[in-house]
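Schema walk-through. Below, the input block comes first and the output block second. Nothing else is stored per chain. Lengths vary across the set, and this one has 264 residues.
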Amino acid sequence: MSFDAFAEFRMDGHKVLITGGAQNIGAGIAKTLSGAGAKVMIADLNGEKAAETAAAIAAETGNDCRGMACDVTDLAAIEATVAATAAAFGGISTLVNNVGWGGRQPDPAAIPEEEFVRSYKLNTISAYRMSMACLPYLEKAKNGSITNSGSFSSAVPAYDILPYATAKAALNQMMVSLAHLLNKRVRVNSVLIGTVITEGYASAGITPEMQERMMHPDNLTGRPGRPQDIANAMLWLCSPAAAWVSGQTINIHGGGGVTRLFGE
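--- output ---
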């Protein structure tokens, strides 16, 4: 029998819950994990889009993929989503806290306090609440893991997205602390994501002109990222191939540099 170098990257038997997976990077992660053999539940604020994306993924991969509505800033919605996922799949082994968003705020003096609070609830507290709701299932699973979609903006000057970057920086601290608190029970990691051009940029106030500048990023690969670049890293971290990896932030940003992409 020949040696299969990719065997430990398989996700057969894994039961995945991914937030914000209806489109963009999240949809790419959901498709990749499903393609590796996992059962996947996509939880998204847009339940109709989540179901549509899940159906398309299931048709392509041949594996069980479902979608449902979930407002991750609502604790009752989180608990209902976790319960529904566990009931559908017979448990949860893998949580991907992918949801996150932040609008452009070019004038730091004009950012209202409420904007920081909203960003923290969406990008940080939601990941904590979802992690705690899934924990009883993750602890029972083989290779139980939590992986967060972080942001490169959390580790460099944030320029025009200060509330978002600040909340994502808090997510980094939460990740490493949870990894130590849950040691030997559940692995916890984060991917710091660089510039990935998706359809979601327009809703964040990033104009076509800004996106054009982002197509020529100051990084070592000379190109912006693709959702698949992030999905590949997520597959590794969620799979048994990363069984000895916890408490880590993995930079996936093309060797990113610090450039003010949004203009002065």
